[in-house]
Design a protein that fits this description.
One of its GO terms (cellular component) is membrane. It comes from Streptomyces cyaneochromogenes. The structure is a single chain. This protein has one domain. The chain contains 15 helices and no strands. Helix 4 packs across helix 10. The radius of gyration is 24 Å and the shape is globular.
Length: 361
Protein backbone atom coordinates (compact mmCIF):
# COMPACT_ATOMS: atom_id res chain seq x y z
CA UNK A 1 0.00 0.00 0.00
CA UNK A 2 1.35 3.46 -0.90
CA UNK A 3 1.98 6.14 1.67
CA UNK A 4 -0.91 8.19 0.25
CA UNK A 5 -3.29 5.24 0.58
CA UNK A 6 -2.20 4.67 4.14
CA UNK A 7 -2.77 8.35 4.97
CA UNK A 8 -6.25 8.26 3.35
CA UNK A 9 -7.14 5.12 5.31
CA UNK A 10 -6.08 6.69 8.60
CA UNK A 11 -7.97 9.88 7.78
CA UNK A 12 -11.16 7.96 6.84
CA UNK A 13 -11.05 5.88 10.03
CA UNK A 14 -10.64 9.03 12.08
CA UNK A 15 -13.84 10.59 10.70
CA UNK A 16 -16.79 10.43 13.10
CA UNK A 17 -19.42 7.85 12.17
CA UNK A 18 -22.90 9.29 12.22
CA UNK A 19 -24.99 7.39 14.75
CA UNK A 20 -28.14 5.76 13.45
CA UNK A 21 -31.23 7.02 15.28
CA UNK A 22 -33.34 3.88 15.95
CA UNK A 23 -36.52 5.93 16.24
CA UNK A 24 -36.03 7.49 12.83
CA UNK A 25 -35.18 4.09 11.37
CA UNK A 26 -38.50 2.88 12.82
CA UNK A 27 -40.23 5.76 11.08
CA UNK A 28 -38.63 4.86 7.77
CA UNK A 29 -39.61 1.19 8.11
CA UNK A 30 -43.23 2.04 8.85
CA UNK A 31 -43.30 4.61 6.06
CA UNK A 32 -42.24 1.79 3.72
CA UNK A 33 -45.11 -0.38 4.99
CA UNK A 34 -47.51 2.46 4.23
CA UNK A 35 -45.99 3.10 0.80
CA UNK A 36 -46.26 -0.58 -0.12
CA UNK A 37 -50.00 -0.59 0.60
CA UNK A 38 -50.60 2.66 -1.26
CA UNK A 39 -48.78 1.28 -4.30
CA UNK A 40 -50.83 -1.95 -4.17
CA UNK A 41 -54.32 -0.42 -3.82
CA UNK A 42 -56.59 -1.36 -6.67
CA UNK A 43 -59.56 -3.29 -7.96
CA UNK A 44 -59.63 -5.83 -5.12
CA UNK A 45 -59.89 -3.09 -2.52
CA UNK A 46 -62.62 -1.30 -4.46
CA UNK A 47 -64.52 -4.59 -4.79
CA UNK A 48 -64.22 -5.12 -1.02
CA UNK A 49 -65.72 -1.78 0.02
CA UNK A 50 -68.49 -1.96 -2.58
CA UNK A 51 -69.33 -5.47 -1.37
CA UNK A 52 -69.59 -4.26 2.23
CA UNK A 53 -71.88 -1.43 1.09
CA UNK A 54 -74.08 -3.89 -0.82
CA UNK A 55 -74.29 -6.23 2.19
CA UNK A 56 -75.12 -3.31 4.47
CA UNK A 57 -77.92 -2.10 2.20
CA UNK A 58 -79.31 -5.59 1.79
CA UNK A 59 -79.36 -6.15 5.56
CA UNK A 60 -80.96 -2.78 6.22
CA UNK A 61 -83.64 -3.32 3.60
CA UNK A 62 -84.37 -6.82 4.91
CA UNK A 63 -84.45 -5.58 8.49
CA UNK A 64 -86.81 -2.71 7.69
CA UNK A 65 -89.16 -5.02 5.79
CA UNK A 66 -89.21 -7.59 8.58
CA UNK A 67 -89.90 -4.92 11.19
CA UNK A 68 -92.80 -3.63 9.09
CA UNK A 69 -94.61 -6.89 9.98
CA UNK A 70 -93.05 -7.26 13.43
CA UNK A 71 -96.31 -7.99 15.22
CA UNK A 72 -95.12 -11.53 14.56
CA UNK A 73 -92.27 -12.22 17.07
CA UNK A 74 -90.06 -14.16 14.61
CA UNK A 75 -90.22 -11.20 12.21
CA UNK A 76 -89.30 -8.82 15.05
CA UNK A 77 -86.26 -10.92 16.03
CA UNK A 78 -85.08 -11.30 12.44
CA UNK A 79 -85.66 -7.65 11.58
CA UNK A 80 -83.94 -6.35 14.70
CA UNK A 81 -80.95 -8.65 14.17
CA UNK A 82 -80.53 -7.62 10.52
CA UNK A 83 -80.90 -3.93 11.32
CA UNK A 84 -78.39 -4.19 14.17
CA UNK A 85 -75.77 -5.75 11.91
CA UNK A 86 -76.53 -3.23 9.14
CA UNK A 87 -76.09 -0.28 11.51
CA UNK A 88 -72.91 -1.81 12.92
CA UNK A 89 -71.42 -2.25 9.44
CA UNK A 90 -72.40 1.27 8.43
CA UNK A 91 -70.97 2.83 11.58
CA UNK A 92 -67.77 0.82 11.99
CA UNK A 93 -66.51 -0.47 8.62
CA UNK A 94 -68.13 2.15 6.40
CA UNK A 95 -68.75 5.47 8.16
CA UNK A 96 -65.68 5.56 10.37
CA UNK A 97 -63.28 4.48 7.63
CA UNK A 98 -64.79 6.41 4.73
CA UNK A 99 -64.71 9.60 6.82
CA UNK A 100 -61.01 8.97 7.42
CA UNK A 101 -60.52 9.30 3.66
CA UNK A 102 -59.46 5.68 3.30
CA UNK A 103 -61.35 5.33 0.01
CA UNK A 104 -60.88 8.83 -1.45
CA UNK A 105 -58.23 7.44 -3.83
CA UNK A 106 -61.02 5.69 -5.78
CA UNK A 107 -62.39 9.05 -6.91
CA UNK A 108 -65.95 7.82 -6.35
CA UNK A 109 -68.09 10.68 -4.98
CA UNK A 110 -70.46 8.14 -3.40
CA UNK A 111 -67.65 6.72 -1.22
CA UNK A 112 -65.77 9.89 -0.38
CA UNK A 113 -64.92 11.53 2.94
CA UNK A 114 -66.38 14.85 1.78
CA UNK A 115 -69.79 13.46 0.81
CA UNK A 116 -70.55 10.57 3.18
CA UNK A 117 -73.04 11.28 5.98
CA UNK A 118 -73.30 8.35 8.32
CA UNK A 119 -76.13 6.76 10.31
CA UNK A 120 -74.83 8.21 13.58
CA UNK A 121 -76.02 11.14 15.69
CA UNK A 122 -72.95 13.36 15.35
CA UNK A 123 -72.62 15.19 12.03
CA UNK A 124 -69.75 13.92 9.87
CA UNK A 125 -67.94 17.28 9.74
CA UNK A 126 -67.95 17.66 13.53
CA UNK A 127 -66.63 14.14 14.02
CA UNK A 128 -63.87 14.58 11.43
CA UNK A 129 -62.62 17.66 13.29
CA UNK A 130 -62.48 16.12 16.76
CA UNK A 131 -61.51 12.59 15.72
CA UNK A 132 -59.44 12.78 12.53
CA UNK A 133 -57.55 15.92 13.49
CA UNK A 134 -57.39 16.24 17.27
CA UNK A 135 -57.42 12.59 18.34
CA UNK A 136 -55.20 11.13 15.63
CA UNK A 137 -52.70 13.99 15.84
CA UNK A 138 -52.43 14.07 19.64
CA UNK A 139 -53.22 10.44 20.52
CA UNK A 140 -53.22 9.98 24.31
CA UNK A 141 -51.52 13.31 25.02
CA UNK A 142 -52.99 14.59 28.29
CA UNK A 143 -54.45 18.04 27.74
CA UNK A 144 -54.47 17.75 23.93
CA UNK A 145 -56.32 14.51 23.10
CA UNK A 146 -59.90 15.10 24.21
CA UNK A 147 -60.68 11.46 23.34
CA UNK A 148 -58.59 10.46 26.38
CA UNK A 149 -61.66 9.98 28.55
CA UNK A 150 -63.91 12.10 26.31
CA UNK A 151 -63.65 14.97 28.85
CA UNK A 152 -65.77 13.03 31.39
CA UNK A 153 -63.52 10.10 32.34
CA UNK A 154 -60.16 10.16 34.12
CA UNK A 155 -57.97 7.63 32.31
CA UNK A 156 -54.48 8.78 33.28
CA UNK A 157 -52.77 9.71 36.58
CA UNK A 158 -51.66 12.96 34.89
CA UNK A 159 -55.30 14.07 34.73
CA UNK A 160 -56.23 16.01 37.90
CA UNK A 161 -58.58 14.06 40.16
CA UNK A 162 -62.01 15.38 41.17
CA UNK A 163 -64.61 13.72 43.42
CA UNK A 164 -66.99 13.37 40.46
CA UNK A 165 -64.66 10.69 39.08
CA UNK A 166 -65.76 8.38 41.87
CA UNK A 167 -68.90 7.90 39.79
CA UNK A 168 -67.12 7.26 36.50
CA UNK A 169 -67.62 3.47 36.53
CA UNK A 170 -71.36 4.15 36.64
CA UNK A 171 -71.55 6.78 33.93
CA UNK A 172 -69.06 4.92 31.73
CA UNK A 173 -71.47 1.96 31.77
CA UNK A 174 -74.52 4.17 31.20
CA UNK A 175 -72.76 5.80 28.25
CA UNK A 176 -72.55 2.54 26.29
CA UNK A 177 -76.18 2.19 25.05
CA UNK A 178 -76.40 5.91 24.16
CA UNK A 179 -72.82 6.20 22.91
CA UNK A 180 -73.71 7.98 19.66
CA UNK A 181 -75.47 10.76 21.59
CA UNK A 182 -72.60 11.07 24.04
CA UNK A 183 -70.19 11.47 21.12
CA UNK A 184 -72.52 14.01 19.49
CA UNK A 185 -72.51 16.19 22.61
CA UNK A 186 -68.77 15.70 23.01
CA UNK A 187 -68.16 16.86 19.43
CA UNK A 188 -69.79 20.21 20.26
CA UNK A 189 -66.61 21.01 22.27
CA UNK A 190 -68.42 22.96 24.98
CA UNK A 191 -65.28 22.74 27.12
CA UNK A 192 -63.34 24.58 24.39
CA UNK A 193 -65.84 27.44 24.57
CA UNK A 194 -65.38 27.68 28.34
CA UNK A 195 -61.59 27.74 27.86
CA UNK A 196 -61.75 30.38 25.15
CA UNK A 197 -60.46 28.03 22.43
CA UNK A 198 -63.73 28.10 20.47
CA UNK A 199 -66.01 31.02 19.75
CA UNK A 200 -69.60 31.11 20.93
CA UNK A 201 -70.67 31.72 17.34
CA UNK A 202 -68.91 28.56 16.15
CA UNK A 203 -70.41 26.60 19.05
CA UNK A 204 -73.94 27.76 18.22
CA UNK A 205 -73.38 26.80 14.58
CA UNK A 206 -72.38 23.29 15.71
CA UNK A 207 -75.44 23.10 17.98
CA UNK A 208 -77.65 23.94 14.99
CA UNK A 209 -75.91 21.27 12.91
CA UNK A 210 -76.41 18.67 15.63
CA UNK A 211 -80.06 19.66 16.02
CA UNK A 212 -80.66 19.09 12.30
CA UNK A 213 -78.93 15.72 12.41
CA UNK A 214 -80.77 14.69 15.59
CA UNK A 215 -84.15 15.54 14.05
CA UNK A 216 -83.24 13.47 10.98
CA UNK A 217 -82.13 10.47 13.06
CA UNK A 218 -85.19 10.56 15.32
CA UNK A 219 -87.61 11.08 12.43
CA UNK A 220 -86.14 8.20 10.42
CA UNK A 221 -85.99 5.53 13.11
CA UNK A 222 -88.75 6.57 15.51
CA UNK A 223 -91.38 8.26 13.31
CA UNK A 224 -91.15 7.46 9.59
CA UNK A 225 -90.50 3.71 9.62
CA UNK A 226 -92.85 2.99 12.55
CA UNK A 227 -95.63 4.89 10.75
CA UNK A 228 -94.93 2.93 7.55
CA UNK A 229 -95.26 -0.27 9.62
CA UNK A 230 -98.91 0.52 10.35
CA UNK A 231 -100.22 -2.04 12.88
CA UNK A 232 -96.60 -3.00 13.67
CA UNK A 233 -95.64 0.59 14.55
CA UNK A 234 -94.81 -0.04 18.22
CA UNK A 235 -92.74 -3.22 17.76
CA UNK A 236 -91.02 -1.56 14.77
CA UNK A 237 -90.08 1.43 16.93
CA UNK A 238 -88.80 -0.89 19.66
CA UNK A 239 -86.82 -2.86 17.08
CA UNK A 240 -85.16 0.34 15.82
CA UNK A 241 -84.43 1.41 19.40
CA UNK A 242 -82.91 -1.99 20.19
CA UNK A 243 -80.77 -1.99 17.03
CA UNK A 244 -79.40 1.47 17.83
CA UNK A 245 -78.66 0.53 21.44
CA UNK A 246 -76.88 -2.71 20.50
CA UNK A 247 -74.85 -0.92 17.82
CA UNK A 248 -73.88 1.72 20.40
CA UNK A 249 -72.81 -0.88 22.98
CA UNK A 250 -70.68 -2.64 20.37
CA UNK A 251 -69.04 0.59 19.19
CA UNK A 252 -68.37 1.63 22.80
CA UNK A 253 -66.81 -1.77 23.55
CA UNK A 254 -64.53 -1.86 20.51
CA UNK A 255 -63.39 1.74 20.84
CA UNK A 256 -62.74 1.58 24.59
CA UNK A 257 -60.90 -1.75 24.24
CA UNK A 258 -58.67 -0.26 21.55
CA UNK A 259 -57.74 2.84 23.53
CA UNK A 260 -57.96 2.21 27.28
CA UNK A 261 -56.58 -1.19 28.34
CA UNK A 262 -54.20 -0.91 31.29
CA UNK A 263 -50.97 -1.32 29.30
CA UNK A 264 -51.74 1.53 26.89
CA UNK A 265 -49.52 4.52 27.63
CA UNK A 266 -50.40 8.20 27.95
CA UNK A 267 -48.10 11.15 27.29
CA UNK A 268 -47.52 14.73 28.38
CA UNK A 269 -47.31 17.78 26.14
CA UNK A 270 -43.60 18.13 26.96
CA UNK A 271 -42.97 14.67 25.50
CA UNK A 272 -44.29 15.63 22.05
CA UNK A 273 -42.43 18.93 21.74
CA UNK A 274 -40.39 18.74 18.54
CA UNK A 275 -41.77 15.26 17.85
CA UNK A 276 -40.34 13.59 14.75
CA UNK A 277 -42.10 11.21 12.38
CA UNK A 278 -40.52 8.21 14.08
CA UNK A 279 -41.50 9.45 17.54
CA UNK A 280 -45.06 10.02 16.31
CA UNK A 281 -45.19 6.38 15.18
CA UNK A 282 -43.85 5.22 18.56
CA UNK A 283 -46.58 7.15 20.36
CA UNK A 284 -49.31 5.77 18.13
CA UNK A 285 -48.12 2.20 18.77
CA UNK A 286 -47.75 2.62 22.53
CA UNK A 287 -51.03 4.53 22.81
CA UNK A 288 -53.18 1.83 21.18
CA UNK A 289 -54.17 -1.81 21.72
CA UNK A 290 -55.29 -4.53 19.31
CA UNK A 291 -58.04 -7.09 19.81
CA UNK A 292 -57.56 -10.65 18.57
CA UNK A 293 -60.33 -12.07 16.40
CA UNK A 294 -61.36 -13.69 13.14
CA UNK A 295 -62.46 -12.17 9.85
CA UNK A 296 -66.10 -11.58 10.86
CA UNK A 297 -65.06 -9.90 14.10
CA UNK A 298 -62.69 -7.56 12.28
CA UNK A 299 -65.26 -6.60 9.63
CA UNK A 300 -67.93 -5.90 12.28
CA UNK A 301 -65.44 -3.89 14.32
CA UNK A 302 -64.45 -1.77 11.32
CA UNK A 303 -61.07 -3.51 11.48
CA UNK A 304 -60.45 -1.53 14.68
CA UNK A 305 -59.33 -4.78 16.25
CA UNK A 306 -56.17 -3.63 14.43
CA UNK A 307 -56.17 -0.37 16.38
CA UNK A 308 -52.35 -0.13 16.38
CA UNK A 309 -52.25 -0.32 12.59
CA UNK A 310 -55.17 2.09 12.31
CA UNK A 311 -53.40 4.67 14.47
CA UNK A 312 -50.17 4.26 12.53
CA UNK A 313 -51.90 4.40 9.12
CA UNK A 314 -55.35 6.01 9.56
CA UNK A 315 -55.79 6.71 5.84
CA UNK A 316 -55.03 3.21 4.54
CA UNK A 317 -57.97 0.99 3.47
CA UNK A 318 -59.21 -0.87 6.54
CA UNK A 319 -59.20 -4.24 4.77
CA UNK A 320 -55.40 -3.95 4.56
CA UNK A 321 -54.79 -3.72 8.32
CA UNK A 322 -54.84 -7.48 8.82
CA UNK A 323 -52.29 -7.83 6.01
CA UNK A 324 -49.81 -5.32 7.48
CA UNK A 325 -50.31 -6.28 11.14
CA UNK A 326 -47.69 -9.10 11.10
CA UNK A 327 -45.13 -6.71 9.58
CA UNK A 328 -45.84 -4.05 12.19
CA UNK A 329 -45.68 -6.60 14.99
CA UNK A 330 -42.34 -7.96 13.71
CA UNK A 331 -40.89 -4.44 13.50
CA UNK A 332 -42.03 -3.72 17.07
CA UNK A 333 -40.55 -6.99 18.35
CA UNK A 334 -37.23 -6.34 16.62
CA UNK A 335 -37.03 -2.82 18.02
CA UNK A 336 -38.22 -3.65 21.52
CA UNK A 337 -41.52 -1.79 21.29
CA UNK A 338 -44.54 -3.17 23.14
CA UNK A 339 -47.28 -4.46 20.84
CA UNK A 340 -50.39 -4.73 23.01
CA UNK A 341 -52.91 -7.30 21.83
CA UNK A 342 -55.25 -9.87 23.32
CA UNK A 343 -58.75 -11.39 23.10
CA UNK A 344 -61.77 -9.16 23.54
CA UNK A 345 -62.58 -10.43 27.05
CA UNK A 346 -59.07 -9.64 28.29
CA UNK A 347 -58.98 -6.15 26.77
CA UNK A 348 -62.47 -5.47 28.11
CA UNK A 349 -61.49 -6.50 31.64
CA UNK A 350 -58.27 -4.48 31.41
CA UNK A 351 -60.19 -1.42 30.21
CA UNK A 352 -62.59 -1.60 33.16
CA UNK A 353 -59.61 -2.03 35.47
CA UNK A 354 -58.30 1.29 34.18
CA UNK A 355 -61.69 2.98 34.63
CA UNK A 356 -61.87 1.76 38.24
CA UNK A 357 -58.23 2.52 39.05
CA UNK A 358 -58.39 6.16 37.98
CA UNK A 359 -61.77 6.79 39.58
CA UNK A 360 -59.96 7.24 42.89
CA UNK A 361 -57.10 9.65 43.71
Amino acid sequence: MSRTSEEDSVTASALPVKAVDPTEELGKELDRVRSDVIAARGADDAHYIRTVIAVHRGLETGGRLALSVSLFPPAWCAGTAMLTVAKTLENMELGHNILHGQWDWMGDPAIHSTTWEWDFATPADAWKRTHNHLHHTYTNVVGRDRDLGYTILRMSPEQPWHPVYLLQPLYAALLAPVFEWGIALYDLEADAVADGRKSVRSFLGDVAGLARKAVHQFAKDYVLFPLLAGPSAVPCLLGNLTANALRNVWAHTVIFCGHFPGDVQTFTEDQIEGETRGQWYERQIQGSANIDGGLLFHVLSGNLGHQIEHHAFPDLPSNRYGEVAPRVREICARRGLPYITGPLWRQYASMWGRVLRHAVP
